[in-house]
What does this fold into?
Amino acid sequence: MNKRFAGVTAAATLGLMTTAANAAVILTFGQIGDAPVVTATANAVAGTTSLTANAPVTVTQIAGGGPLANPYTLVLNAHSTDEAGQVGNAVLQHYSGTFSITNGASNALSGSFADALFGAGGALVLAASDAVAGENVDFTSNVIPANLLGDPQAIAFSFADVTPPASTVGTGCAVNPSISPCTLASFTSSISGTASAQTPTTVPEPATLALLGSALAGLGLMYRRRRSA
It folds into this structure.
């Protein structure tokens, strides 16, 4: 890992430790099988990228002890909202979109988000926390009780085996990262994820992935502030 990337990520993690400690993991999931199920489609001329997934997943943890209806189907749709930039060797770009994890009438968790995608090489994280200014998350579920879906809410989608490795495309990238058109290049990957929310029995520390998701969301905020300065 690039030293600059490691240092900035560590700082963001420490800075958001208190916020993350106020939320508990409410759901985790992983895809069924190893085939790539996420498709990123870049438009280099416009400087935009769309992310889609429609795949069977297994919910491995859910708040409230409700009955599971595995396998569920994950549907994810997200679109870039700004140009891509770089932090060290890593790519950063902001996205908004929707997701659902359902099986017929069973809605394990669905929602909308505005967040940041961050990562390098074969691993990317699409993460959002509505505890971070400029980002938002909104959950609904008929499996998780409403009292376990309080704010702050956060979501993190982890993309593994990103093929080809994460990079950017567009004529703006050759001039300087963050100049349009410059966007995340097309890729395919596998997916897993974690969601967290405020609950009456919130634990002192969330699972590592949920914390990382919030940290990377915070890193996106720091990047936006740096760009606007």
